[in-house]
Amino acid sequence: MVRHFLGLFGLIVLTLALASWGQDRILAAYGSADAGEQALTRATMLAVAQQLAAVPAGQRREFVAAFAARSGVDLELMPTRDVAGLAKLGQLAHDGVVSLQDVQGQSWSLLKAGDDDVLVLRAKQGSAPRTRLDWWLTALFYGVIALVLMVWLWPVARDLRALEGAVAKFGDRNWVFRTDIRPRSQIHALSSAFHRMTTRIDALIASHKDMSHAVSHEIRTPLSRMQFSLALAQDSANPGEAQQYLDAIKSDLEAIDRLVTATLEYAILERAEFSLNLATYDFRTLIPALAQQVAAHARADISITTDVSPDASAVRCDMHLLDTLLRNLLHNALRFARSRIRVTFAVRDGMNELSVADDGPGIPEPDRLRVFDSFVQLDRAADRKSGFGLGLAIVRRVMEWHGGSVSAGESALGGALFTARWPVISGQ
Ligand SMILES: Nc1ncnc2c1ncn2[C@@H]1O[C@H](COP(=O)(O)OP(=O)(O)O)[C@@H](O)[C@H]1O
Ligand SMILES: [Mg+2]
To answer: Which of 109, 176, 352, 358 is deepest in the core (most CB within 10 A)?
Structure first.
């Protein structure tokens, strides 16, 4: 950190120093002396020249020297022929102050005084030598820059280090990403992006763990049952009895097949490169038709009613996924309902809202989030053959792919209420 800071500070100071040195050089080379200074020089020289007129010719040089000594101005009276740059002498005749510059960067102001003499005022061009105060001010200037940089950089560097630590820890298979980077930090957006990424990775790892765990468990049970049935079938002398065992094996095989199908269906939705197949559908006819189809295989004592709002004539969605979603919700409802199931669809506040309500036992409040996790079944013992706890996980994924969400609650009928919401997609 200190190394980074010093590096940046050095770079900035060097750049500033180079820039200001360059500026000085450019001004010295092309800039003219300040206009006020020129006028002052001219006035001084004209005043001295005027006084000289009254001084006898022999004493003029001493008079100027004495004036120079008194005033501290580098003034001298020189014979015209001693002055270099005679090209300018033509101009001198016209009684004006002429400026020349010598090789050492000194500026000479010349004024003709009498016939043979020239009054010369020499001034150092450019800035005056630096005083101690100048040095202190320069040091203060760079000190302030260092301070400002430090105030700005230090928290950023600290937060970056915290982020680096958190990412490294996450990478060390800790799978927990925790930083205390405050919302005001410059890198808060970066850290939130990391947080979202790691949450997703964490969820993926957890779901894969669950999946392999559940799959192995769900397969092992029917497998051992099959081994048992097979051994019994081999030993049985009675063909009718053997057939019974073979039927049991067949039903276990079907269970495994169903598991594999459900797992694959879910795994496809988990994939990152999944793409939606969007089109526009008339839900006013589609939803009742679908409900009818499911109801055909349902218990006779259950009635399914549908209520689709009249403005649902053009709903944009991936119908294959929506079909899966509704079937999953309906199959669950059919399993738990006592006599009534109600499917409703409406477009509200820019959201499509599809819900399935039943009059069964409902979902206990503490489980209303958990039921959407993969392989979660609340009634495992009582209802073994119903599925693998993937139905609601699939429902949730379908909604996520549509940019929406799903929630569980309590229905007006007294049982469970599942509501899927997704934004009205443009083109609808
Ligand atoms: N309509 C419902 N009423 C009561 N409980 C429900 C309902 N729908 C789902 N559940 C509970 O949520 C659990 C998860 O459902 P789901 O993911 O579809 O798995 P599965 O149907 O394979 O058991 C079910 O095991 C059940 O306990
Ligand atoms: Mg289900």
So the answer is: 358
CATH number for the domain including 62? 3.30.450
- Alpha-carbon distance of 34 to 23, in angstroms, equals 16
Place of tokens 């949450």: 199
Instruction: For the chain, give the percent of residues with pLDDT over 90.
Output: 38
Are residues 305 and 382 both part of a single domain? yes
Residue 392 CA: nearest ligand 1 atom is: 17
Contact assessment for residue 283 and residue 289, using Cβ atoms and an 8 Å cutoff: no
> Sheet harboring 303-308: ordered strands across?
303-308, 340-348, 351-358, 416-423, 405-410
* Residue of minimum CA distance from atom 18 in ligand 1: 391
Q: Residue 193 falls within a domain, yes or no?
A: no
One domain, residues 365 and 284: yes
Tell me the range of 175-184, 262-271, 379-388, 397-406 where mean pLDDT is highest. Answer: 397-406
133 domain residue, yes or no: no
Residue pLDDT, tens place only, 298-357: 888 999 999 999 999 999 999 999 999 999 999 999 999 999 999 999 999 999 999 999
Tokens linked to 336: 């738990």
- 96 and 38 share one domain: yes
252: CATH: 1.10.287
Pair (290, 254) in one structural domain:
no
- Is 162 in contact with 168 (CB distance < 8 Å)? no
Distance from the alpha carbon of residue 292 to the mean position of ligand 1, in angstroms: 21
Q: What does the DSSP assignment read for 87-131?
A: GGHHHHTTT--EEEE-TTSEEEEEEEETTTEEEEEEEE-SPPPPP
Least confident of 48-62, 283-297, 376-390: 376-390
CA 333 to ligand 2 centroid distance, Å: 9
Q: Which of 142-151, 265-274, 403-412 has the lowest mean pLDDT?
A: 265-274
Pocket mutation for ligand 1, best pick of 218, 324, 392 (most atoms within 8 Å of C-beta): 392
* Whether residues 265 and 286 fall in one domain: no
Number of independent structural domains in the chain: 3
For residue 334, give the ligand nearest its CA.
Answer: 1
- Nearest alpha carbon to residue 287 among 253, 251, 261, 325: 325
Two tokens, residue 183? 């919302």
Do residues 326 and 354 touch, judged by C-beta distance below 8 A? Answer: yes
- Nearest in space to 408 (alpha carbons), one of 383, 371, 361: 371
